[in-house]
Input
Amino acid sequence: MIQKRRSKIHGAGVYATRAIPKNTRIIDYAGEKISHGESLKRERRYIRNGRHIWCFTLSTRTVVDAGVGGNIARFINHACRPNCYIEIKDGTIWIRAARTIKKGEELTYDYNTDGDGLIPCQCRPDCQRLL
Ligand SMILES: C[S@@+](CC[C@H](N)C(=O)[O-])C[C@H]1O[C@@H](n2cnc3c(N)ncnc32)[C@H](O)[C@@H]1O
Ligand SMILES: [Zn+2]
Output
C-alpha cells in the first residue's frame, strides 16, 4: 500500500502505491517506548545530528522513539494540511487516512510539535510554521 521515496517536502517520504480509502489504518508508528526525560535527551541529539524528529508522544508517560526499532512510518513527513491523522489506541500509534488518498500521493500528518526544533515547515511554498 505504501513505499518510501524521495520527497518534495524533505529528504525521504512515504507514498501511496494504490488508492487508500478514508479511515484506513495504514501503518503503526513503531519504535522503542521511552520516558519523556529520555526523549528530551535523544531529541536534542537527533536535532543536532541532522534536524530529525523521531520521537512521538504516545501518552503523558511514554514517547515512541522511531530512531530505534522504527518502521517506514518514521519517514512520513509533516504537513499543515495533511491527508492522514493519528489515532492512539491500546498503546499503539496508528496513522490513518483522513480522506481518500490517491495512488502516488505523499502521505503526511500533522506532527503537532510546539516549534522547539525550529525547523521551517516546507509543506507548501508559503508555509510560515516552525516545526
Ligand atoms: C520523521 S522524519 C521524516 C522523514 C525525513 N523526511 C527523512 O528523510 O528522514 C522527520 C524530519 O523530517 C523533516 N520534515 C518532515 N516534515 C517536514 C516539513 N513539512 N518541512 C520541513 N521538514 C520536514 C524534519 O527534518 C523532521 O525532523
Ligand atoms: Zn506547513
Notes: Strands lie at 2-6, 12-16, 25-28, 32-35, 55-57, 62-65, 77-78, 84-89, 92-97, 108-109. The helical segments are 36-48. The radius of gyration is 14 Å. Residues 2-109 form a domain with the Beta-clip-like fold (CATH 2.170.270.10).
